[in-house]
């Protein structure tokens, strides 16, 4: 049973493409004309093992614009005929200048293989291109060939066949910087109003071509219903500036990659190249990134701590003044627990959020973040997520609120959605005190291990959820990784502060209001009916706890735990406080620990189930507010909440039934 | 008939511009620098991603990306 | 490539990981931390990993320098850069803790002993400062101009 695939050969003129074509096809070739033009078309056949290959030799071109017939013929074939693989033949002795065409081929969304032709002469010149590095940076398999001697051609074809068979493909492409990418995104939205158009041409490619004033594409859209929307979008843009910037960006990437892919090709490395040499190193790159992120967290805590202390101090002082000075008592409680509590929750996040965003802005403006996304890309792809997803995931370990806001930089909507949905499983800092308390009481000798296990469990569930979503509700291949490698530079204070302010103030405006609102509602439930002690059994919250308790009874939770979990929805930090109230010991952790230990309804297994539940169930309301803001959809927000609850319930249930075999029940 | 992009011209060589493959705005900008069909350009040096060229007695720095849009006829000696 | 760079890289590449591993062990093995305090090594596990990483960068660099690969000195420069970055971060962190304690009598220790500052992640940056001055001036000035 023979396989049949179609391969196109592309490349600059004078790279030895015809020689390779002739060697591959021998006498089984046919020369004709491309339809409608006076450009020679050569096609032929070759057989490798079980596979019959139709090979088409595309005209040699320097790029894929609409300025020459050759280029139009070449790109039309790739777009319309959709060959299984395109073999990009490059002249290894002049590697860098061939890469311009490579960047354009990468935007066509077709599987690519690179032939490093004339590699014998290249080596004589002392030029050693590392094929595995080419694969690492461009995500294009590369094979050394000497077309004139027929060397490497078998391996080339076999690599091409293998590449044709892989699906889906991990694609890399050029990113053009935030501003231009925004234009592209808007154009794609306009283009997608005409499904016929976008079925024919890749949307992103069309958008890029339109921005560069491609005449052929401009003609194509004239008859499309999307024409007006597109024209309106284009009118908002300074196209000359954009065209120049885009050409610059392509070469910026080439210039950044060249020293890493072929160190002997370049005459000396700049400071920027040297840093990249280490920052994108396949072994050291990821650890360096992780270490720097840890450093960023340390800095965030360090700078934020004084502000947080100041805010707490002020809130406490205010609270005492209110308790002392205001009657009736319910009003004092309203102001204290409701308003001040609510405002306090919102403000409590502020220092951390602003400073974290400031540090991120600095990392982004310095150019390092682009490299970080690059090193994390392959790892993230195996989970089905884009490289940029790693940053929100990492921030999530500190606090889910800024983490979800940080997903804004992810271009593809589905990718962004999945990243947001799995973020709550990154166990945020507010849950830690709960872990410490329960693990310390019920697993005194292995508390640290239990907590570590919880964090790992969170990551595992995040990864599995991502895969699940990819397979079911958000299918599709991850969008191509858009690479940018701007030169490193010292970030200016002003731009970083502006970025920080943009993101931070958004939090205050939107999330802040919602959080405050919910805080008041919870206060209401905890204080009514009139006369009950705040948050006690008699209040609505307590009643709610009793009502819900049967549902969670299989998990072994008593009604006090249930109430605490309800409060936990408000903010995870509150779980301990409310337990303190319910067990009658106030804020004293030690006393609370003893009380919990003494409670006959709580066992080690229950504690473990509770910990797992807290890890997974609904993130705090602030996160929910931010999820709504970032997804812009109630549907996904509700889904996120329900998904968390369901998985938490199932996981806790599993613990209750499985753990006794390991822990022994008490 | 061997027109190549300007970025293919090695340092020290001269060439004659044949066409600018860009939209009007960019064409005008480059023309203002003296880069228009028929004018002669010398490549002075080629560094990471940019070219220094000399046109009508003046020197300019061009990104290689931009230089890909300027098609030229190299003087005899070729591009190797 | 200069022998001095090779020796420096190798030296840092050995000392850093040793201190790092010891620091990690101090965090894991109960009781070890106390005896380590004598050597001014805190029991901060993650910090220990960071030390090991910086050491790895230097070590990798030493190997590349030895084989005369292009771009080998990059590892030396970046190693020094990382060592300086983390030293500064830790100093800021300690400073903030101190400020917090002074201003608000807040959580995490009321006094601020100087010995808290003499820890590997900080004092190991001293050779980097010297190295940067000796070899890195052009490298760093390139960056600021770019």
From TrEMBL, chain A:
SUPFAM superfamilies: P-loop containing nucleoside triphosphate hydrolases. GTP binds at residues 11-18, 36-40, 57-60, 117-120. Residues 4-166 form the FeoB-type G domain. Keywords: Cell inner membrane, Cell membrane, GTP-binding, Ion transport, Iron, Iron transport, Magnesium, Membrane, Metal-binding, Nucleotide-binding, Transmembrane, Transmembrane helix, Transport. GO terms for cellular component: plasma membrane. Its main location: membrane. InterPro entries: Fe2_transport_prot-B, Fe2_transport_prot_B_C, FeoB_Cyto, FeoB_GTPase, G_FEOB_dom, Gate_dom, GTP-bd, P-loop_NTPase. Mg(2+) 1 binds at residue 22. It is a multi-pass membrane protein. CDD domains: FeoB. Mg(2+) 2 binds at residues 23, 25-26. This is Ferrous iron transport protein B. It comes from Methanoregula boonei (strain DSM 21154 / JCM 14090 / 6A8).
From TrEMBL, chain B:
This is FeoA family protein. It comes from the Archaea. It comes from Methanoregula boonei (strain DSM 21154 / JCM 14090 / 6A8). One of its GO terms (molecular function) is transition metal ion binding. Residues 4-74 form the Ferrous iron transporter FeoA-like domain. SMART domains: FeoA (SM00899). PANTHER family: FEOA FAMILY PROTEIN (PTHR43151), SSR2333 PROTEIN (PTHR43151:SF1). The keyword Lyase does not apply. Signal peptide: none annotated. Keywords: Iron.
UniProtKB/TrEMBL annotation, chain C:
The keyword Transmembrane applies. Keywords: Membrane, Transmembrane, Transmembrane helix. The chain crosses the membrane at residues 7-33, 39-62, 74-92, 112-135. This is Uncharacterized protein.
